[in-house]
Specification:
alpha/beta, Metallo-beta-lactamase, Chain A, Rossmann fold, binds zinc ion, 14 helices, six-stranded mixed sheet, globular
Length: 464
């Protein structure tokens, strides 16, 4: 079998690994490149394979950097099966149409605002019909139950503990020298995080692909993180203001709801706070999370069965634009969770416009903020930001809480890989920026032989 790195090699986004063997061809993940013009060009470049000749795609989880090019694949003639877990299939049902909508809007905007000599990309990367086409090809599977996408290959999903439905892949195939196992980590979660279970561990791999998003960093403990969150909320309470929390619709919003519930139950924050989830996508993702009770960790299951319904009663899920606008009239005592998580789009921008100019309010940043995003400027201490074509003064307090990552840190990744009974023949470090991947390679390489950072476009032989 041969494996070609089509993305997430030397960078975080664009996860896509092309497998070729006597049995045919397939992909693990078909992700989108994210972050500016260069990513857009890469998303538009022809696939290095012929989509019509692929037999299957094995998806690790719903995040767009792993699934976002499935509509393009379907639009270009792929008619094979797309395997994923049950919860991933449900999340994709929301995420892929939304992604298509964003692509269509972006294309419209580029044409409208086109002034230079260069012709902009007039067409959307893909449209709603392509997203629907991809969704029809989904073949949901249970965790821990082997399935066979084609004769000669057997795949098992194990819980990766990263977001709802996330999995790592154990793929078994025959070679001349015997049965071999390829393990692809997908994105590995950090243990002891709310909602999702802790990651399961691989026990055997002849070949390993391992993510390295935080391959050079350690996260703060959950206890420290909760202390910081409590303090941010209680300070705002003393000043009588509102708390705005920009949160990714899938994952982080549900984490925050759980943690706010926990802090209220423990009496660490006032139970008079009114909590608003103001993002249609976050509301849908919360529904899907509640529907996959069996995939949630024991603490969340317990909390939901004992007091969850009571807690959820104090959470307002806004739907209409009018409901959303009404929140802006609340002078204090509201915790507003809204997307996008990096403040660059969506309803969060309206809330920031209203809440930022007042000293009594707070913005609590709980997720990763990419370079050049509005959220990053707030974290970096900007005194003024531009919103809707206007300068908005930043008088509100900005709290940055860094401990809530959905990705394993260096120690958790080492622990995860350390569960393999014997070192793999080859290990490729993927899904990380150059520095993170290199430092993780050095660390793992000090224990095992044949550890390398994956090279974009390179093909490796997995037949030995
Ligand atoms: Zn992910
Ligand atoms: Zn990822």
């Amino acid at each position: 079998m041969q494996l070609t790195f089509c993305g997430a090699a030397g960078e975080v986004t664009g996860s896509c690994y092309w497998l070729q063997g006597a049995w045919g061809q397939g992909l693990i993940d078909c992700g989108m490149f994210q972050g500016g013009m260069r990513a857009d060009l890469k998303n538009r470049a022809p696939f290095p394979f012929n989509p019509r000749q692929l037999d299957f795609v094995i998806l690790t989880h719903a995040h767009l950097d792993h699934s976002g090019l499935l509509p393009k694949l379907a639009a270009e003639g792929f008619r094979g099966d797309i395997y994923c877990t049950m919860a991933t299939a449900d999340l994709l049902g929301v995420l892929l149409p939304d992604s298509a909508h964003i692509q269509e809007k972006d294309a419209e905007w580029r044409i409208k605002h086109h002034r230079g000599r260069m012709r902009p990309n007039a067409t959307a990367l893909y449209d709603a019909a392509a997203a629907e086409q991809a969704l029809k090809l989904l073949r949901p599977q249970h965790y821990n139950q082997p399935f066979s996408p084609v004769e000669g290959i057997q795949v098992t999903y194990r819980d990766a503990g990263h977001i709802l439905g996330s999995a790592f892949v154990e793929l078994q195939y025959q070679t001349k020298s015997g049965l071999r196992t390829l393990v692809a980590s997908g994105d590995v979660g950090q243990p002891s995080r709310p909602i999702v279970k802790d990651p399961a561990f691989p026990t055997h791999a002849d070949y390993l692909l391992i993510e390295s998003t935080y391959g050079n960093r350690l996260h703060k403990s959950m206890a420290e993180t909760l202390d910081e969150l409590t303090e941010a909320i209680n300070i705002t309470r003393r000043y009588g203001g509102n708390v705005v929390i920009p949160a990714f619709a899938v994952g982080r919003t549900q984490d925050m709801l759980y943690l706010l519930g926990q802090l209220t139950e423990e009496g660490r924050i006032d139970d008079e706070w009114q909590i608003y989830v103001d993002s249609p996508m976050a509301t849908k993702a919360t529904d899907i999370t509640l529907h996959h009770f069996e995939d949630l960790d024991t603490e969340t299951q317990l909390a939901l069965s004992h007091n969850g319904h009571r807690f959820l009663k104090r959470v307002h899920f806004t739907e209409t634009v009018e409901d959303s606008m009404a929140i802006n009239k609340i002078p204090g005592g509201a915790i507003i969770l809204s997307a996008s998580g990096m403040c660059d789009a969506g309803r969060i921008r309206h809330h920031l416009r209203w809440q930022l100019p007042h000293r009594k309010n707070s913005v609590v940043i709980v997720g990763f903020q990419a370079m050049a995003s509005l959220g990053r400027r707030l974290v970096d201490g900007a005194k003024k930001v531009r919103l809707f074509g206007r300068e908005v003064e930043v008088a509100a307090r900005i709290f940055t809480i860094g401990g809530l990552s959905a990705h394993a840190d260096q120690a958790a990744l080492m622990n995860w890989a350390g569960h393999l009974q014997t070192p793999p023949r080859n290990t490729w470090v993927v899904h990380g920026e150059a520095q993170a991947s290199a430092s993780f390679r050095d660390l793992l390489g000090s224990k095992w032989l044949n550890v390398a950072v994956a090279e974009a476009g390179a093909t490796c032989d997995l037949s030995d």
